[in-house]
Design a protein that fits this description.
The complex is a heterodimer. By secondary structure, chain A is mainly alpha-helical. Chain A contains 33 helices and two strands. The radius of gyration of chain B is 34 Å and the shape is elongated. Chain B is built from 44 helices and no strands. Chain B is mainly alpha-helical. The chains are: A mainly alpha, B mainly alpha.
């Protein structure tokens, strides 16, 4: 049995077990992955596509989430064809050398001894599927099996969560929301911890226990419990992603004691991405792509990473491809819309917005895409409306808070903008965009000194981002503060961290010029000039640089260099040309005034 | 989202209805309807009834915590009121009856009957109904209204909470009943007729207007209150002990108690008004005495509050204050920014009440900058502080925020005056040096700028009726006048070396009368607080809180013990009164008023009137200790102890210092400095030069190493160094140090110090025997003293002058004695022991040097001053001069032939000389032995 076949077996059984326990999204994830495994190399491409198509035809769990997908068989067939064509050129994927995965046996489902128990479970699951959680839990009372026990606890937990959401709205008092907690947490925690102590808990129970611990704020214990859970049953993606949300820095990540299962690669890649280690994440994903050749999930993650690395064009190609393969996809399409926003593709963005609107308009991502579209159109009020809707659907939607802050800034509603940014920070204190936004808002309000605090915060989180340093430098440079020394320090940082817009070098040159450090000024003007030449740009900065250099070399008595820049200046129109001409004239006179220089000149 | 938040804040109901409020409503019902026949509960006396009324009033206003008290606490408080055990049972049974939504509806329906019908309808006799406009009436109406506005979900929640509220009591209720016999016991005590006849006085005030009644309580004879207190001591409830044991200690233990309580999951918030009152109180306490607030536990409490009420941003402000007073720079900065980001400066930092939400769109971030400036100032970053404050000025001008502008200007003034003249130069211009022309960058212009700023701020404050600020500005101006001795030398700078020393004709304002004039203006402003009706605005419910605390605290004898060591934050006179009823004046006002007394003391200190210094410091320490921050209070104590050391000798001063050290934390810089000063003086007098030098070195270490900072401390250190060298007879070194010091003082325009240093130089030359050189120095010093109204220093310089003349030969004795007689009134009236002794010895020496005077004719003319001097010097343990006095006495007795007395004097002389030579075994010697 090839390794791919074993992957398939594992995933197939895992998806079944997960969906049996009503862990829908994990089941969906596993089933998607199952489909995405590259067909074995010995099989001809055409048969692979047909087998894949047949696999598609069997109702998968994911169809429950997106009921429309099987109504469009044409689209999926089209997609298959494209995919296999794209894949045929690649080498057969094998796990990278040197990595040996530990094979984890797929645990057997604990069978029910009596038919009665099984029937009860069936009824409970039906209730659960109809979202009658308390009823499901009630049906399962007194059942002893691990599976029944899990479903009962899980149903109780969800019932508590549902009630919590309701109460949150009901109890919206005069001082804001009261501190609502899931009322089932305490009893569930007691039960699960005692089960864990006596060892009669399976990985699903551990997953639930971890969830409860996380809600209660016992994060370190939650991490251990999640690790236990994924080590015994690695295919539960929900457990992995909960674990990942608890790894807020690389230290906790490296300290995790994880078995070396191939699911760990998915986990690490996604964790790296969250920790802004995009290169590492890309590397992992590319390895995984060897096995899961056509995985949409991996593709979308790669595209997201590329977008974060500002590789917009490459990311766009992947997103387009994704959308072509799976036209009803909503996940990670908000990133795509951000990308289109950054590239100012009006029609593509409107097309995307229309598409997700038809698919499911009450998804936070959909609202965010629509809001992005309005924002691009300059209709900020409408944009805010849709961001608000997105946030109502998911209060912890980080990027929506930040983007809404940007909208408020555009609308000049600074207090609202600040509030929105603050809430983003509340969700993730390491979100440098929100800190940057706060700084910008205060800068707009003409409070540069106050804004410095925020820029400092954001550059602390993202020390290699030249934009942040430039923003800070501009604050120092601004009229009320006039702290030029500090501004120079910041611009130097920006210039050292690959300033793509080239502001830093020019400003450095200018500031040194103002402070009378002519040597440094000339150095930076020259550097700036070289950069502009390398990038093939033209503009007023170039003229300014050349003029300064010409004057500087003249004053330094390096007439040849001065002449070089003056003659270059003659190519431009405008007043600088005249200045260059007069400079040249002055140069000639100066040169003749120094006979020793002339002799040297003639001698050579 | 912020917009939504503000709407919620502005248009919300006054509070949420909670189980505790239902209980209070029920009690109000009992209180109001007690005469009706169907009421199962009857009051035993009218005073009991009134006490209940007062209790209910306080309950609805107190703000000791942000959470509703549990039923158990409520019952305990009821029990402490005395004789209301029946009422407790009645309350519980009635609360337990409420088990379905319909019961609640009926309860509130019935509650409506408590309120009297509005005007017009006839009152039925024998019925005390509540006036709908009284405090309790409004409370009941709010409850009814809030209940009526509740959706059905809300009613369900209320019911759930009510069950939890009643259950929380179940476990402890039995125990409470066991204590009942105690209650009856002290109930008997309460029936003591004497108490009642005095209680009747109190009842006359009536309770139609509850607010009136509550205020009247402050006027009740303390005798009644204390007897009331003693009577209630019989009730001895462990729960109260535990719960309110710390209420005296700056509200610390109640906080911990709150944390503890949340485990019962009864986190029900009080009304917004009460929570804000609680926060304001905590802010005041924090400022007064930060040490009693452990950083982490208090911030945990605040976090809990934040979690319960995320829209209440003021908790974040408290977080900021907490971090600030615990010197946690980073988190203070974070919390400050966080608070202003959320509140957009709209929570009204100045008025302490939310400002109308209509202007919300703008946001008032100038306040944030102002706070940032003060934060930076607090942490000693004057440059950053100045940047922030200038930005604040800019933004408040831009936003037309006049009051913030006024406050900012005041803050800048404070900053400029605090970082002082010297290191401003680093900020504004090049360091000032002698001889340069006055430009914008010189320190003097900074001071001028400061004056202009102060005047501007004053005008604005006057215009905007910001009473607090007005008072502050007057104080600042007074302070400015006080410092003016150093700053008012504009003409002097222009022609620096033309005349040595200032010109006498210059008009100076250091004189205490002008300082006091400013101060009077400020206290006049403060008295307007009463008249303006500003009092209502600032009423934070502190009164009710402390009333409730006292109700719980009575009858816990050990609580009183616990209170003793905490007396730091309590006025001394409170011991005579019913614990510490808070002063109706807002704390900030009191603080300002107190500061004026400290300033007065300082101004008299400069002028040289010791008794007035002592009086003002005493007034401060006794009357304003309540509101004072610990550093200011310690300053007052320092002044008092200094006075003691100068007038009563070191033994007493050290005793007092020990008390002060117990009272304040060891870290108090004022106290630490004082200790060093005292140690140095004593070591010098005893001749223990090694120790003196050590203390001197410690002084130097205390000062910051940055040039230009801590100038006063640095000058004092080198002054003391020079004096130590002088005592060691190393004249040239001493002179070098002193002249160096003079240069520094001259450079930084420290004129008072100039005069002192010149006098010291004169002393050095006097001791080294170069009287002529000494004369020129002492004359220079005298001219400084005259110009700056430094009267006591002038007297001291005069004595030195006389001594110098005397050392030039007997022909100058007449002149010397006339000089001394000129200075004597000042010296005898205000001078300390040392100065008096010196003057007395000088008088004797003058007479002895005078050829026309014969000892045998009038021996008492010399012996009297000498014996006086010797006594005073012995108290001071000033061996060198005491030996001199005894030596003179011995010679005189010898010439008079009084041999026994001569032997005595000689023995004393010997003793002092030996002590001077062996300073190490000083401590074995008796301090007052002749």
């Amino acid at each position: 049995m090839s390794s791919k076949e074993s992957y398939r077996v594992e995933l197939r059984s895992a998806a079944r077990q997960l969906s049996d326990r009503c862990l829908y999204s994990a089941a969906k994830w596993a089933a998607e992955l199952l489909i995405d495994i590259e067909p074995d190399a010995h099989a001809p491409a055409s048969s692979a596509s047909s087998s894949a198509a047949s696999a598609r035809a069997t109702p998968s769990t994911s169809s429950a989430a997106r009921p429309l997908s099987h109504l469009h068989p044409d689209a999926s067939a089209y997609r298959r064809r494209l995919r296999s064509a794209a894949a045929s050129g690649d080498i057969a994927a094998t796990p990278p050398a040197g990595v040996s995965y530990i094979s984890t046996p797929v645990p057997d489902d604990d069978g029910f001894n009596s038919d009665g128990g099984n029937d009860r479970y069936l009824l409970a699951k039906s209730y659960f599927d109809c979202r009658e959680y308390r009823r499901a839990a009630h049906t399962l009372r007194g059942q002893t099996g691990k599976k029944a026990g899990f479903l009962r606890c899980y149903a109780l937990y969800l019932a508590g969560e549902k009630r919590k959401e309701e109460e949150m709205i009901e109890l919206d008092g005069s001082l804001g929301k009261s501190d609502v907690v899931n009322s089932e947490l305490i009893s569930l925690e007691r039960e699960l911890s005692s089960l864990r102590r006596i060892g009669s808990i399976d990985s699903f129970g551990l997953y639930l226990y971890g969830l409860i611990l996380k809600d209660k704020g016992c994060e370190s214990l939650a991490v251990t419990v999640f690790v236990e859970s994924v080590n015994s049953f690695p295919w539960n993606w929900s457990a992995w992603s909960e674990l990942q949300s608890l790894c807020t820095n690389t230290d906790t990540l490296t300290k995790l004691n994880l078995k070396n299962h191939w699911m760990k690669d998915f986990f690490l890649a996604s964790a790296y991405q969250e920790l802004k280690m995009h290169e590492e994440a890309l590397k992992r994903y590319e390895c995984l792509l060897g096995v899961f050749r056509s995985s949409d999930y991996i593709q979308s993650q790669i595209a997201t990473a590329l977008y974060s690395l500002r590789e917009l064009d490459e990311a766009e190609v992947i997103f387009e491809d994704l959308l072509r393969n799976d036209p009803y996809r909503v996940e990670s399409m908000d990133i795509y819309s951000n990308l289109l926003y950054a590239k100012e593709c009006f029609s593509a963005l409107s097309f995307l917005a229309h598409r997700v609107f038809l698919t499911d308009k009450y998804r936070p991502e959909s609202c965010c895409i629509i809001a992005n579209y309005y924002s691009l159109k300059g209709q900020h009020e409408k944009s805010v409306l849709y961001f608000r809707r997105a946030l109502k659907l998911n209060r912890k939607y980080l990027s929506a808070w930040t983007l809404m802050g940007h909208e408020y800034v555009e609308m000049k509603n600074t207090p609202a903008a600040i509030d929105a940014y603050r809430r983003a920070i509340e969700i993730n204190p390491r979100d440098y965009r929100a800190w940057y936004g706060l700084g910008q808002t205060y800068e707009v309000m003409n409070m540069p000194f106050y804004a410095l605090y925020y820029f400092r915060k954001s550059s602390c989180l993202q020390p290699n981002d030249s934009r942040l340093w430039v923003a800070m430098a501009q604050c120092y440079e601004s009229a009320p503060l006039q702290m030029l020394e500090e501004a120079i320090k910041c611009y130097t940082r920006a210039a050292n961290s690959n300033d793509s817009e080239g502001i830093a070098l020019h400003q450095l040159a200018k500031l040194h010029g103002v402070l009378g450090h002519s040597e440094q000024a000339a150095f930076f003007y020259k550097k700036d000039l070289e950069r502009m030449e390398a990038e093939g740009r033209q503009g007023p900065n170039m003229v300014e640089a050349m003029l300064y250099l010409a004057r500087y070399y003249k004053s330094e008595k390096k007439f040849e260099e001065a002449e070089f820049y003056c003659t270059r200046l003659l190519d431009y129109t405008g007043p600088e040309r005249e200045t260059a001409k007069s400079l040249l004239r002055g140069l000639r006179i100066a040169q003749t005034a120094f006979p020793s220089m002339d002799i040297g000149h003639f001698g050579s | 989202m912020a917009g939504g938040g503000s709407l919620k804040e502005g248009g919300s109901p006054v509070f949420d209805i909670t189980p505790h409020k239902i209980a209070v409503c029920h009690l109000v019902q009992v209180f109001a309807l007690h005469t009706q026949p169907d009421m199962p509960f009857a009051f035993q006396s009218i005073s009991q009834h009134h006490r209940l009324g007062l209790f209910l009033f306080s309950l609805t206003r107190s703000c000791e915590s942000f959470l509703d008290p549990s039923l158990e606490e409520l019952l305990n408080q009821l029990k402490a009121l005395g004789g209301l055990a029946m009422l407790s049972e009645h309350l519980i049974s009635n609360l337990l009856v409420l088990s379905s939504p319909d019961d609640l509806f009926n309860f509130f329906d019935k509650l409506r009957g408590v309120l009297a019908a509005p005007e017009g309808s006839s009152m039925e006799e024998e019925q005390t109904l509540l006036d709908p406009n009284s405090h309790l009436g409004i409370f009941i109406r709010c409850c009814i209204l809030t209940f009526n506005m509740l959706p059905f979900e809300g009613v369900c929640h209320l019911l759930t909470n009510l069950v939890a509220y009643c259950n929380s009591n179940d476990s402890t209720y039995e125990m409470a009943e066991d204590d009942d016999f105690n209650g009856s016991e002290f109930h008997e005590l309460l029936e003591d007729p004497e108490v009642y006849c005095e209680a009747a006085e109190f009842e006359e005030y009536g309770l139609e207007n509850d607010a009136q009644a509550a205020e009247n309580l402050t006027h009740i004879p303390s005798k009644f209150l204390s007897s009331f207190l003693e009577d209630n001591q019989a009730s001895d409830d462990p729960r109260i002990k535990h719960g309110d044991g710390g209420s005296q200690s700056g509200g610390l233990i109640p906080l911990l108690n709150n944390n503890f309580r949340t485990d019962d999951n009864l986190g029900v918030l009080r009304s917004r008004w009460q929570i804000e009152g609680y926060l304001n109180m905590q802010a005041d306490l924090l400022e007064k005495d930060a040490i009693s607030f452990p950083l982490y536990s208090f911030s945990a409490t605040l976090r809990q509050l934040q979690k319960l009420a995320p829209e209440l941003h003021r908790a974040r402000y408290l977080q900021y204050l907490n971090a600030l007073y615990h010197n946690d720079y980073l988190s203070a900065l974070d919390e400050l920014h966080c608070y202003f980001d959320y509140s957009a400066g709209m929570e009204g930092l100045f008025s302490r009440s939310p400002s109308p939400s209509s202007e919300f769109e703008v946001g008032r971030y100038e306040t944030a900058l102002l706070c940032l400036g003060t934060l930076q100032c607090h942490f000693g970053h004057p440059k950053k502080a100045l940047e922030a404050l200038t930005e604040a000025v800019r933004i408040s001008q831009q936003n037309n925020d006049d009051s913030c502008l006024a406050y900012t200007l005041a803050a800048i003034c404070k900053l400029l005056s605090e970082i002082g003249i010297s290191n401003m130069t680093g900020i504004i211009g090049s360091p000032y040096s002698l001889g340069t022309t006055t430009g914008l960058g010189t320190p003097l212009s900074t001071q001028q700028q400061l004056l202009v700023l102060l005047k501007r701020s004053l005008e604005r404050a006057d215009h905007l009726k910001l009473t607090n600020l007005l008072a502050f500005n007057h104080l600042a101006l007074a302070k400015f006048d006080l410092k003016a001795s150093s700053y008012y030398l504009f003409s002097h700078v222009k022609k620096p070396l033309l005349s040595f020393g200032p010109k006498a004709s210059m008009k100076l304002r250091t004189c205490p009368t002008s300082v006091c004039r400013e101060l009077r203006l400020s206290s006049h402003v403060l008295s307007e607080f009463g008249a303006d009706g500003l009092l209502q605005l600032n009423d934070t419910g502190a009164f009710s809180t402390s009333w409730l605390k006292n109700v719980s605290a009575v009858g816990n004898p050990w609580l009183k013990k616990l209170q003793k060591p905490r007396s730091l934050s309590v006025n001394d006179y409170d011991t005579f009164q019913f614990y510490a009823q808070p002063n109706p004046m807002p704390g900030s006002v009191l603080q300002l008023a107190g500061a004026s007394y400290l300033l007065r003391a300082t101004s008299w200190e400069h002028y040289g009137s010791a008794p007035l210094v002592r009086m003002n410091a005493l007034v401060y320490a006794t009357c304003f200790a309540d509101a004072a921050s610990s550093s200011e209070l310690s300053l007052a104590y320092v002044k008092l102890i200094q006075h003691l050391s100068v007038f009563k000798g070191y033994t007493e001063a050290f005793n007092a210092l020990k008390l002060a050290e117990d009272k304040f934390s060891v870290s108090s810089t004022h106290i630490r400095l004082l200790k060093l000063q005292l140690l140095h003086e004593r070591a010098l007098h005893r001749g223990n030069l090694q120790e003196a030098q050590q203390v001197c070195d410690q002084f130097g270490v205390l000062a910051s190493s940055v040039t230009g900072v801590d100038m006063e401390l640095k000058t004092e250190a080198s002054l003391r160094h020079a004096r130590t060298l002088l005592a060691a007879n190393q004249f040239s070194q001493a002179a070098a140090v002193a002249s160096n010091l003079f240069c520094t003082c001259y450079k930084f325009n420290m004129q008072v110090e100039n005069a002192t240093v010149l006098l010291l130089l004169a002393e050095i030359h006097k001791k080294s025997g170069d009287a002529v050189l000494g004369l020129s120095y002492v004359l220079a010093s005298l001219s400084f003293c005259k110009t700056f109204n430094l009267d006591l220093l002038e007297a001291s310089a005069t004595v030195t002058l006389a001594e110098l003349w005397l050392s030039l030969g007997s022909s100058h004795a007449k002149k010397a004695s006339s000089l001394i007689y000129q200075a004597l009134p000042m010296i005898l009236g205000h001078g300390g022991l040392e100065l008096r002794a010196r003057a007395n010895i000088a008088v004797a020496k003058c007479l002895l040097a005078d050829p026309s005077y014969l000892v045998s004719e009038d021996p008492d003319a010399v012996l009297d001053p000498l014996s006086q001097a010797s006594e005073e010097l012995q108290i001071l343990e000033y061996h060198e001069m005491a030996a001199e006095a005894f030596y003179l006495m011995a010679i005189i007795f010898n010439s008079l032939g009084r041999l026994d007395e001569r032997e005595n004097a000689a023995a004393s002389f010997k003793k002092h000389v030996i002590a001077l030579e062996n300073p190490q075994d000083e401590d074995n010697l008796p301090t007052h032995g002749v």
